[in-house]
Specification:
Radius of gyration: 22 Å
Helix content: 25-40%
Number of helices: 16
Distance between the termini: 12 Å
CATH architecture of the largest domain: 3-Layer(bba) Sandwich
Oligomer: single chain
Shape: globular
Number of strands: 20
């Protein structure tokens, strides 16, 4: 992209706020450049939205369950000379095959494979050979979309939208995206390739990660479908939480300072620079530069006393209800033995209209599509022995409107809505779930909001056009020369790969672009 704006003045000691994946990525890249780095985390464990909930006899991942592009974790570790085999815990990721199991409301199902020939064979069996050929054409188009946008539009810093045409290479890729229809709508573009409505859902549901209904999402977000369905889905031994644990271990062993149970409550600033961060325990940490990774609502509350104006409030993605608990393996042996199952309802466009509606018009899904995650199917070390009974951890995710869209009274409706979701799965063939699924924790928009997430959504700012690419919240802060942002709310956006990239991009704002 050429020369980008970087932090001015001294950058010897950097405080990174938040030990989620964005903060850990930034901290590792900064530490590897020779800076002194202090990483401050309000929780007692690392990982943020890829962390853990601990119960009496087991732990369970508390956030993202889908890992794509694990090489981005390796890159962050390599910045300090570490590799996955030397961290504690050792980071070993397994490629899931299938990546997903999809169940449809008409009783049919499909294993989603990242291998093109295996997937084409599965599509041919379900939909016929003509649709299998169309799938391969779609796969090629998704790969072209990804290739045209990744290096210059996801893995690069922007100072302004003009950067899109500031170099011959950037302009070439922009023209390629236009030629591919990348600025059209994802749903119609996928529909041009595929005729089977069931199959279309497999390659468009990822738009929800970006906070937009597939019919309205920009086709450039086919890149997420490419990561999910072509590049492969992975799972690290011990759970997704081991990613943050391994990165934190590498950071500390390389000489970084990591403070847990430390909440930043304020910034000391003067002459356009932050001089120190203040913690809730009264401690003051002097610094030359700050990287802030919490959600935009928390960041803006901290910035408001020190800058003249913060940007206008972003439009926030839909939220999710997530039920975490255990279930006897004797029950789940009768279910499909798959790590991830997407269970689609009949409704599709109506469902997205309900959960993405604005200004109080949102509704709970009348015909839910759900994500069921069973990590012990892949990693048998996660099986729980309790009273002579083998149990496995189980998580059920149901998209729902955020608190701006539907300010529901979640404390009173969480229990009945959870029962409704579980009853729905029982009727769809998950026999025994109603009686035997013991829910130990339920996340709702209210619990996400209590963690500082805007409008109670763990998916941050929606990727509508004005919040996409160079139009998304910048990782540089206007009015402060030494504050950089990272995480879901800033560039390049939401998701495990993108927040890892965001940490690296934040580091480059301080140490300069990599050669």
């Amino acid at each position: 992209m050429g020369s980008n704006r970087t932090v001015t003045g001294s950058t010897d000691h950097i405080v990174v706020v938040g030990a989620g994946l964005a903060g850990l990525s930034a901290a590792l890249h900064l530490l590897g450049s020779g800076r002194r780095v202090t990483l401050v985390e309000r929780d007692s464990t690392p990982g943020g939205r890829v962390g853990t909930y601990g119960f009496a006899d087991y732990d369970i991942d508390n956030g993202a369950t889908v890992l794509t592009m694990p090489e981005l974790v390796d890159q962050a570790l390599a910045a300090v000379g570490a590799d996955p085999a030397t961290t504690r815990p050792v980071l070993v990721s397994h490629k899931l095959d299938p990546a997903y199991h999809a169940r449809f409301a008409d009783g049919t199902s499909l294993d989603v494979h990242s291998d093109p020939q295996r997937m084409a064979a599965a599509v041919a069996e379900l939909c016929g050979p003509d649709e299998a050929r169309r799938y391969l054409q779609l796969r090629g188009w998704l790969g072209d979309i990804f290739d045209a946008e990744f290096d210059r539009f996801m893995d690069s810093n922007f100072d302004s939208p003009l950067d899109l045409v500031s170099s011959r290479g950037a302009l070439k890729d922009l023209v390629q995206l236009v030629r591919l229809g990348g600025f059209g709508r994802l749903g119609p573009q996928v529909g041009r390739h595929l005729t089977d409505v069931r199959l279309r859902r497999i390659f468009t549901f990822q738009a929800l990660y970006a906070g937009v209904a597939p019919a309205r999402a920009l086709a450039v977000y086919g890149a997420i479908a490419h990561m999910d369905t072509s590049l492969g889905v992975y799972f690290p031994e011990g759970g997704m939480r081991t990613i943050g644990q391994a990165m934190a271990d590498a950071f500390v062993r390389a000489g970084g300072t990591l403070l847990f149970d430390s909440t930043v409550t304020g910034l000391d600033a003067g002459d356009g620079r932050v001089r120190a961060v203040r913690l809730s325990n009264g401690e003051r940490i002097a610094c030359d530069t700050v990287v802030m990774t919490p959600d935009v609502a928390v960041v803006d509350d901290l910035l408001r006393p020190t800058v003249r104006a913060v940007p206008r409030r972003a439009r926030i993605s839909p939220s999710a209800v997530v039920l975490h608990g255990t279930i006897p393996r004797a029950v789940t042996q009768q279910w499909p033995q798959r790590h991830h199952t997407i269970d689609f309802g009949h409704a599709w466009e109506r469902t997205f209209r309900q959960i993405t509606a604005r200004a109080g018009r949102g509704r709970l899904m009348s015909d839910p599509s759900l994500l069921i995650t069973r990590p012990a199917v892949t990693d048998h070390t996660l099986v729980i022995e309790r009273g002579g009974v083998e149990l496995e951890p189980l998580s059920v995710l149901a998209p729902c409107p955020n608190l701006d869209s539907a300010p529901l009274h979640w404390p009173s409706i969480t229990e009945p809505y959870s029962a409704e979701l579980i009853g729905c799965l029982e009727r769809r063939g998950y026999v025994g779930i109603t009686e035997h699924f013991e829910i130990d924790h339920a996340d709702t928009p209210v619990t996400w909001a209590e963690k500082g997430m805007s409008a109670g959504s763990p998916f941050a700012s929606a990727h509508i056009f004005r919040q996409t690419g160079p139009f998304r919240r910048s990782n540089m802060v206007s009015g402060l020369d030494n504050v950089v942002l990272a995480g879901s709310s800033t560039v390049p956006g939401v998701g495990v790969p993108t927040v890892l990239i965001s940490g690296k991009l934040a580091a480059e704002r301080i140490i300069g672009p990599r050669r």
